[in-house]
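haha ok so turns out i had the wrong file open the whole time. this is the CORRECT one, sorry everyone. sequence first:
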Amino acid sequence: MWYFEGSGKSLSIGITANGSGSVHAAGTQECRPTVDDENDARHMRGVEGFVSIHPSTADEVDYDGSGFGLKAHYEKHQKQVGMITWFETDADRPGFIGLSILVPSPVMDRIVMLMRDVMATPNLRYLIAVEFGGFKIEGAKSATPTIGEFMDRVFLRRKPYFSHELTVTIRTPPALTPAS
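then structure:
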């Protein structure tokens, strides 16, 4: 699993140019591959996580400005999809993990209600869990990227990780603790 967590202090709810709602959040992220591959997780430790959630009616530029294929994954499966992307450290900011989520409009309405509760209640936190089996090994035949493809230094060559299994919950602390 790959977890993204935060509080209402890091949340914003907005309306895009075409009138679609969106949620944006900053917080912690923790990579726990279901396959026992400590190499995958070690690259992601201590890196901040940023989340954006959008309805399927939103303009593609709002959630996938680089054209990595989030809309195509949604249309193929007709269900929620998450796209995890690595953003490398540069002169302006430290590196971070981005999670863009595309959901059906009725689901987006429920997510906005949950996130409003998190914003209004200081002791609530959001937790987004994304199914993550690990990166593929070199030479394997799979659409899943290798760790090298995921973290490629050339942004437009980079390949994101897609998952259709994700949940959004709200909860009270304690915060997610790192795996030992």
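The chain is about 20% helix and 35% strand.
again sry for the mixup
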